[in-house]
Specification:
Elements: H1 12-19, H2 21-36, E1 43-47, H3 55-62, E2 67-72, H4 75-87, E3 93-97, E4 109-115, H5 124-132, E5 135-146, H6 154-164, H7 173-176, H8 178-186, H9 189-198, E6 201-209, E7 212-214, H10 217-226, H11 237-251, E8 256-258, E9 261-268
Parallel strand pairs: 1-2, 1-4, 2-3, 4-5
Antiparallel strand pairs: 5-9, 6-9, 7-8
């Protein structure tokens, strides 16, 4: 079973992702957007915009004179994000089905935001360095990542469940998944701070955002489809159903997710 990106998931995958929005994606994305300090009239890039948890508040702050480009590799997630902005009457958002690492805008951005999207970059350092070239001098980036200990023991239980049900995860799957590798590299305030400074950013700050989320069985399954772990799930419906049933049993009815996160912001040095 090879790792797959969200773009290969069915449309229902976006609905699963959005089921966790009130408890996780929305509060964390609101913190990211607040850290970005978006002003009226500014241009904003949302990297791995998903279903728009960061896109919507960014567009509201930028106002009609500003603009947000939401870039995401999952067409299903983009469709749901677009529906949200239309329902709110936000006409200052453009949606692009593309890999953020390859994105080429017509103009530079005042701010870049990303809610957990950095961990989905295929080549963490060079991809991030390229995204930063899209910022104007003096522009800033705000992002969220998982803190150390977040998603545990959920990820380990999911991997064990796949094995129990006869699935075929990659050998040493926890180390070969890009998502897991990136998450581990950035999963502490100090490591994230140092990584952003190494990218040439100044005025870097990292704040911890403690978050615990009681997960009902259905929401726990949504997390499996909504996080980077989705790349381990089988495509075959029968095998997928077996994994789901076994995971519900292994997690139990009172599982509490450690969703501790980090909110970071940094600025691109202005040209002198």
């Amino acid at each position: 079973m090879t790792a797959r990106h969200a773009a290969t998931l069915p449309a229902s995958g976006a609905e699963d992702y959005d089921r966790l929005a009130p408890a996780v994606w929305n509060p964390v994305s609101n913190a990211v957007v607040a850290a970005a300090d978006i002003l009226l009239g500014e241009r904003v890039l949302d990297v791995h915009a998903a279903t728009g948890a960061g896109t919507v508040p960014a567009a509201q702050l930028a106002g009609p004179a500003g603009h947000v480009d939401a870039v995401e590799r999952s067409s299903a997630m983009l469709s749901l994000a677009k529906t949200k902005t239309e329902a709110l009457g936000l006409g200052n958002v453009s949606f692009f089905h593309a890999d953020p690492a390859d994105w080429n805008p017509a103009e530079e951005y005042d701010a870049v935001i990303s809610s957990y999207g950095v961990s989905l970059l295929e080549e963490l350092d060079p991809d991030m360095d390229r995204i930063l070239t899209l910022l104007r001098p003096g522009g800033r980036i705000a992002l969220s990542t998982w803190d150390e200990g977040a998603l545990l023991p959920f990820g380990d239980l999911l991997l064990e469940t796949i094995r129990e049900t006869g699935g075929h995860p990659p050998v040493e799957a926890s180390t070969v998944l890009v998502f897991v590798e990136n998450y581990r590299r950035l999963a502490s305030a100090q490591r994230l701070h140092e990584w952003l400074q190494a990218r040439g950013l100044s005025d870097v700050s990292v704040e911890k955002l403690p978050l615990t989320v009681p997960l009902e069985p259905d929401h726990a399954w949504s997390l499996a489809l909504a996080s980077g772990y989705r790349g381990l799930l089988p495509e075959e419906p029968e095998e997928l159903a077996r994994v789901r049933g076994a995971l519900m049993t292994n997690l139990g009815d009172d599982f509490v997710l450690n969703a501790d996160s980090l909110i970071a912001v940094g600025s691109l040095e202005p040209v002198r």
